[in-house]
Amino acid sequence: NRKAKVKRKAKRVSDDDDEEEEEEDEKPSKRRGQRRRTKPQDSDEDDEGDKKSVASKASKVSGKKGAKTSRKEESEEEDEEDERVSKKKRGKAASKKEKEEQNNDKKGKASGKDGDNKDKKKKKNANSSSSSSENDDDDEDSLSEGEIAALMEQVEEKKKLISTIRSKPWRMKKRLLVLKEAQQFVEKFEGALGKGKGRRLYAFKVMMTKKLIKFNRDFENFKTACIPWERKIKEVESHFGSSVASYFLFLRWMYGLNLILFGFMFGLVVLPEVLMGLPYGSIPRKTVPRDEQDTAMDYSVLSDFGGYCKYSVLFYGFYNSDRTIGVLKFRLPLSYLLTSVGIFGYSLLVVIRTMARNANEGGDGGDEGEFNFSWKMFTSWDYLIGNPETADNKYASITTSFKESIVDEQENQKDENIHLRRFLRISANVLILCCLGGSGYLIYFVVKRSQDFAKMDPKKLTWLQNNEVEFVMSLLGLVCPPLFETIAELEDYHPRIALKWQLGRIFALFLGNLYTFLFALFDEVTAKLETEKSIKNATEWALSEYYANYTSFYNTTDVPPPNVNPADVIRGPCWESAVGREFVKLIVSDVQVTYLTILIGDFARAVIVRFLNYCWCWDLEAGFPSYGEFDISGNVLGLIFNQGMIWMGAFYAPGLVGMNVLRLLSSMYYQCWAVMACNVPHERVFKASRSNNFYMGLLLLILFLSMLPVVYSMMTLSPSFDCGPFSGQEKMYDVVIETIDQDLPAFMGTIFSYASNPGLIMPAILLMMLAIYYLNTVSKGYQQANTDLKKKMQLVSMSSILLLSFF
User: Fold this and answer.
1) In angstroms, rounded to a whole number, what is the distance separating the alpha carbons of residues 371 and 358?
2) What distance in Å separates the CA atoms of residue 786 and residue 792, rounded to the nearest whole number?
3) Distance CA 296, CA 308 (A)
4) Of 66, 54, 53, which is closest to residue 148 (Cα–Cα)?
5) Where is region (Disordered) located (predicted)?
6) Where are the alpha helices (DSSP H) in 555-618?
């Protein structure tokens, strides 16, 4: 009622003012005055309309408040309208003075029509400028403090609505409509909450805040897009489940690790030798022998990594043994040793850190919580998906997750005959142990046979005899895992438990094969060391005879070195390069067998089933051979043991890490294509563990086992006398002792000698073991406390439900 009274008073005052203006104006000047009066009146009407619209918005906002706030705002509106009426009177008085001046000018002037037109234009411009200035002043002063506060509150409410629009239980059409209206309101009124310069500063701050938010969002999207193969892995996970996707996540992690290891080896060993070392052909270790030069570029020789490959940066024997090389005085032997040790240290640190992070995310198949199917039913879908392909992937992912949960529930409710199950599981383990023992004996026999072939003429040997060891090891890795999987059907474990048993058995197979190969290989190394000693003694005797004969013949002690071409120098077998060649051949043969198996066993099988199913006697898709399933256990263990061979072989062949990077890069694309094009999901789809610690545990074990042969070579075996960075040393670690004695201060040598004392090392190891035991005990106590807390929370929730049911 008060608002209506105020509006009526304002209208009466404006009507009285208009009547007084009409009486004072003369009759002949009515038409001209009306024409000139139309523009300022329109502008006044627009100002009044704007003021009314702002007042209506402020009244809408204020209507939501209580009775006390409404009274305050009504009093403020009355004051504002009184101020507006006084402003109108002032403006109209000013317009009356202008009209009187115009009438006096018209009477006193004797100018022509042209002068009148010019004066009209000037006056129109003056009136328009005065009206625009008045409009600006009115806009600046039109919003009171209460209106600004109401607008600010409304803007904040709209912002809050924009941020919480996802959680509203509305349809998508209503969400989009409300979101669009809220954004338009915020953009329209957010910058109008200041005055004058403050308005511009506020608008600038708002603009910069929006740009910063957009930049952060785009940067997060850019970081997500920079994750390699993220979209491919999500697509695989949506169709095949999290168990298959875990393999590709593990493969991507291995690729990143090997990329960093390649940077270490290439930047600290290979690149300094290439840039600052002696060129090819300058010394015997960098020159192909005379009797091998004719066949050094043959394909059969290069495919066996002989010829020019053998005398390249790929292998250990190429690197120079000078203490410093180049202008920078780079210590290559020390860098070679420390980089090889640093690769193991960095890998160990990364694996343990990853295991700790995965342990924080959750245990292996722990408590999934209650109401699992209800949560999946009502909270799985993402309502902001706008891409049809993404929607299809999400639909397939939800379907697969339901299958995984159904399998878990069926396994939990299954009844079985315990005695029969135990008998079948014992029988399966006996058969698998027989397979493991037979594969180990076969590899030992083949390696011993290859040593006999090495003593024969290479031209008389066939391709199978030259590559028998690699062929047999790859064949065992190809045949034994499916055989283990067939035997494991007798045990009838849960798919997740069966996968772990399968991984453990294949791990034992690969580990036994690898160490059998290493034992046989080190027998060959021992024989080569004996050969090197005899060649070294013969070379030293020949040099001493040369110096004695030259001194006696020329009667001088200034004896020049013998002038012999590097290609004609007699050299030893260089056992380090020989071991590196065996590892490189194993890696290459493993890649070939893996890719051919996918091409023939998966792709060709899928083509036959797809195109011959229409004209065959039985259903090829439902019966034999059907589409293949992705072998998770075999691929994971193959990847782990491939990495173990890289860790072992990187010391003997520095270029092996770069070859493995290329292998992992091609495997990601090749296997992703094979899975999506040739394989079908498992019949019993199961959920992967919430952490990949089982994979990481196997990788940590193979890292420790692969470190032992390298440490044994560094600390026990003598290096070759004519090849490699450690030639001329008794043991490889003598390079470190030499550096400490010659380059570091004396007190540093004393510190290192005390630190290497077994009397200090043994107590330190004992202290570490006690610390590990203490931390393990504390962690178990925390786990028990968490379990007790969960039980208490469940009891409290049940008691509250019972109390509600009573009332």
Assistant:
1) 25
2) 10
3) 6
4) 54
5) 1-143
6) 575-597, 605-612
Mind listing the pLDDT tens digit for each residue in 150-164? 887 888 888 888 888
Q: Express each pLDDT in 179-221 by its tens digit.
A: 889 888 887 776 655 544 556 676 777 788 888 988 998 898 8
Lowest model confidence (mean pLDDT) among 115-124, 197-206, 503-512, 729-738: 115-124
pLDDT at 43 exceeding the cut of 60: no
Residue 250 near residue 695, CB atoms below 8 Å: yes
Written as six digits, the tokens of 94 are 């000013």
pLDDT of 21 higher than 60: no
Please identify which residue in the block is written with the tokens 């009438």. Answer: 103
Quote the CA–CA distance of 498 and 760 in Å, as a whole number.
Answer: 46
Mean pLDDT, the chain, as a whole number? 75
The contacts of residue 355 (CB under 8 Å, 6+ apart) are: 693, 696, 697, 700
List 680's β-bridge partners, or say none.
629
What crossing angle do the helices spanning 172-189 and 145-163 adopt, rounded to 10°?
Answer: 150
Over residues 418-429, the mean pLDDT reads 80
DSSP 8-state symbol, 629: E
Q: With bands split at pLDDT 50, 70 and 90, how would you rate the model's confidence at 269?
A: very high
Is the Cβ–Cβ distance between 577 and 315 less than 8 Å?
Answer: yes
| pTM, full prediction | 0.67
Torsion of CA 298, 303, 307, 309, to 10 degrees: 130
User: In the numeric block, which tokens belong to residue 441?
Assistant: 């004996």
560-566: long-range contacts, CB 8 A cutoff, minimum separation 24: 565/290, 566/281, 566/282, 566/283, 566/284, 566/286, 566/287
Report how far residue 384's alpha carbon sits from residue 388's, in angstroms, rounded to the nearest whole number: 12
**Cis peptide bond upstream of 719, omega within 30:** no
CB 306 within 8 A of CB 377: no
Check if the beta carbon of residue 730 is closer than 8 Å to that of residue 718: yes
Q: For the chain, what percentages of helix, strand and coil (3-state, to nearest 5) are there?
A: 75, 0, 20
Q: What are the backbone dihedrals phi and psi of residue 562, each rounded to the nearest 5 degrees, phi first?
A: -65, 135
> What is the distance between the terminal CA atoms of the chain, rounded to a whole angstrom?
49
CA distance 19 to 712: 114
Instruction: Please give the pLDDT value at position 259.
Output: 94
C-alpha 598: how far from chain center: 27
Residue with tokens 């001088």: 556
**Alpha helix locations (H) across 64-171?**
67-108, 113-142, 145-163
**Mean pLDDT confidence for 705-726:** 89
Where in the chain are the domains? 147-226, 230-289+305-364+376-410+417-728
Taking the CA atoms of residue 21, residue 23, residue 27 and residue 31 in that order, the dihedral angle to the nearest 10 degrees is 30
pLDDT at res. 631: 81
Q: What are phi and psi of 257, to 5 degrees?
A: -65, -45
